[in-house]
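Hi F.,

I've been meaning to write this up properly since the lab meeting, where we talked about keeping a consistent format for the predictions we share between groups. The idea is simple: the sequence comes first, exactly as it goes in, then the structure tokens exactly as they come out, then a line or two of notes. No screenshots and no reformatting. I'm using this chain as the first example so we have something concrete to point to.
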Amino acid sequence: MSNDLKKIFREIENLSLKSDNYFEIYEKHLKKFVGKEIIFVEIGVLNGGSLQMWKKFFGKKARIIGIDINPECKKFEDDQIEIFIGDQSSKIFWKNFFEQVSNVDVILDDGAHTNISQINTTLSCINNINNDGLLIIEDTHTSYINKYNTSKKYTFINFTKKIIDKLYKSGNSIYKNDKFNLGKRIFSINFYQSCVIFNINENKSTQNNTVYNNKLDHEIKDMTFQHFLNHEKSFLGNIKLIKNFIRIFKKYKTNRYLKKIFN
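Output, unedited:
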């Protein structure tokens, strides 16, 4: 399959530039849409080559939409390809876009690659992608290049780290700071070399209830937190002050160990 997509890429009429490792990523995540009635959006038209590639890859049933800030890109429209002109970092552009197009199935961001463009695209698009759809952000290595970022702290990759918190805490009532509903729409995130993919499905993103198989229960004691309590059984274990000290010390030792792993 990868040779087929690369073959299409090499045979298209107009110029296109893609990282070689992207083809494997594309096929893994996009092959399920081939031959289907989908709306596929690519940000960043340039010479129009990749839109031609997607048109041939997905087939005649797909609606292919390109987005670019340069009005000259309108020339690449045809019977299956539409071009919208606008700034992907503008929330107003995205509001108007989705009012015209409605929800879509796949958005591929190969646009400006700046932190504000990638972040605002994510915030504006997540809630307008159908269940089982994808948001693909390419060339995310730009998070580590100064000219693409207004701040080292507010890169796109750092933004995705915050989304991970929302993803895992979205089902927890104590976590309410998710005004964009990202944690409620994203089911999973795939991180690749220079590419991040958000898998959208609000039906799967909420925490599910624990399921039991109703078989034989041997009533084995759950000792998950026993390692925190071992020292409390010492001869001073009944003294509240000592118990608290031991608990804090154990936490400190554990966190020191984890810090080494994360660093």
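Notes:
The mean pLDDT is 85.
The two ends are 39 Å apart (CA to CA).

If this format works for you, I'll send the rest the same way.

G.
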